[in-house]
């Protein structure tokens, strides 16, 4: 069994703790659902936000999910590239799996579908 990365991203309308946690929880749930991932399969999760998200750590959302108390989480800031998508939360989830790279379903929600339109319509 190897390790694969699952990409995900979602945007929020307002920089509030409630919205950050809610959107991140929705994204994480969709990522594990589409890929049949269990909490014990997750090696680590790296979460980034754009500069305009400051009200909360998105990793708080993971602590609301069953079985995630031992999942290693890290939050960081995205590079502030001019013209990049605002109010965006990005996730890189590393999972232990025997799936091929082509079998992984990456999840881009709301305005974040424009980040990877080639992957957004799969599964």
UniProtKB/TrEMBL annotation:
Prephenate binds at residues 7, 90. One of its GO terms (biological process) is chorismate metabolic process. It comes from the Bacteria. Its EC number is 5.4.99.5. One of its GO terms (molecular function) is chorismate mutase activity. It catalyses: chorismate = prephenate. Keywords: Amino-acid biosynthesis, Aromatic amino acid biosynthesis, Isomerase. SUPFAM superfamilies: YjgF-like (SSF55298). It holds the Pfam family CM_1. PROSITE patterns: CHORISMATE_MUT_1 (PS51167). NCBIfam families: CM_mono_aroH (TIGR01796). This is chorismate mutase.
């Amino acid at each position: 069994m190897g390790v694969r990365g699952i990409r995900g991203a979602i945007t929020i309308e307002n920089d509030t703790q409630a919205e950050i946690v809610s959107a991140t929880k929705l994204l994480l749930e969709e990522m594990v659902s589409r890929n049949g991932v269990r909490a014990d399969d997750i090696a680590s999760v790296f979460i980034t936000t754009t500069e305009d998200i400051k009200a909360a750590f998105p990793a708080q959302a993971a602590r609301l999910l069953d079985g995630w108390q031992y999942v290693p989480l890290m939050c960081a800031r995205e590079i502030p590239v001019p013209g990049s998508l605002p109010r965006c939360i990005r996730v890189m989830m590393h999972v232990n799996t025997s799936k091929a790279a082509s079998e992984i379903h990456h999840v881009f929600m709301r305005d974040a579908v424009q980040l990877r339109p080639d992957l957004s319509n799969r599964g």
